[in-house]
Design brief:
- The chain is mainly beta.
- The chain has one domain: Folate-binding superfamily (Folate-binding fold), CATH 3.30.2270.10.
- It is 10% helix and 35% strand.
- It has one helix and six strands, in the order E-E-E-H-E-E-E.
- Strands 3-4-5-6 form a four-stranded antiparallel sheet, with no helix packed on it. A two-stranded antiparallel sheet has the order 1-2.
Length: 93
C-alpha cells in the first residue's frame, strides 16, 4: 500500500486517494477545431513510462483537495507531493 503525504492532512494511506492522471496532459482546443482522432488521442493514449512521473491525485476521503505526486511507476516509491498551486516538483532519474 502506498503512503501519500497530503500537503494539507499529512501522511495517509492510499485508499483515501484517487488517481487523476498524468501531469501535464494538455486538453486540445477549441472543441470545434479538434478532429476526432486528436480527441481520441487526448482521451485514450498515454505514455505509461517506467520510472519517475508526475501524477494528479485527489484526497477523496480526506480534505478533497487535488495534489501532485511524484511517483516511481516501477517501485511505487513516492519522492514528493505538492499542491496544484505550487511549482511542479522535478522529475529526475
Amino acid at each position: 500500500m502506498l503512503r501519500i503525504s497530503c500537503p494539507w492532512c499529512g501522511p495517509r494511506d492510499e485508499p483515501e486517494f484517487r488517481w487523476g492522471g498524468e501531469v501535464p496532459v494538455l486538453r486540445p482546443g477549441p472543441p470545434e477545431a479538434v478532429s476526432d482522432s486528436a480527441w481520441a488521442q487526448y482521451l485514450f493514449v498515454r505514455d505509461n513510462p517506467k520510472g519517475w512521473v508526475r501524477e494528479r491525485w485527489v484526497h477523496a476521503f480526506g480534505c478533497r483537495q487535488w495534489l501532485i505526486v511524484v511517483r516511481n511507476t516501477v517501485t511505487h516509491e513516492i519522492r514528493a507531493t505538492a499542491r496544484l498551486t505550487e511549482p511542479l516538483p522535478e522529475v529526475t532519474p
